[in-house]
UniProtKB/TrEMBL annotation:
This is SIS domain-containing protein. It comes from Anaerocolumna aminovalerica. InterPro entries: RpiR-like, RpiR-like_SIS, SIS_dom, SIS_dom_sf. CDD domains: SIS_RpiR. It comes from the Bacteria. Gene3D superfamilies: Glucose-6-phosphate isomerase like protein, domain 1.
Length: 125
């Protein structure tokens, strides 16, 4: 699993996807140019695409293989960005938990290893 907030790095990741991969694309509007470009590259490489976006007929929703919709009120521009981000983070956590539970014994070991890899950076345990 790979994640990056940098668009240029995300574009390079998308260019290496295969039909065995899934690209999960987050965009509240579903109309963000960079996300659509990543979607198109992932599709060109035959990766499955999963959009996490607000309900509606956005470019991202209509062109992804799978769509999980979020709903969040947008009263003010900043509070709207916050509520949509929280809704998408909740879906992200649900997906992680569902996938982890499919092979929990293996995932539990990996979670322990990742936890321990940072232990030297903690002031207290």
């Amino acid at each position: 699993m790979t994640f990056c907030q940098d668009t240029h790095v995300s574009l390079t990741y998308a260019s290496t996807l295969t039909e065995e991969d899934i690209a999960i694309l987050f965009s509240n509007s579903g109309e963000t140019k960079e996300i659509i470009e990543i979607l198109e590259i992932a599709q060109k490489n035959k990766a499955t695409t999963l959009a996490i976006t607000k309900f509606g007929k956005s470019h991202l929703a209509m062109n992804s293989d799978l769509v999980l919709y979020t709903s969040s009120p947008e009263i003010y521009k900043r509070s709207g960005a916050m509520s949509s981000r929280i809704a998408q983070l909740i879906l992200n956590d649900i997906l992680f938990t569902a996938i982890a539970n499919r092979d929990y014994e293996n995932v539990e070991e990996l979670l322990e290893v990742s936890y321990e890899s940072c232990s030297s950076h903690r002031l207290t345990d």
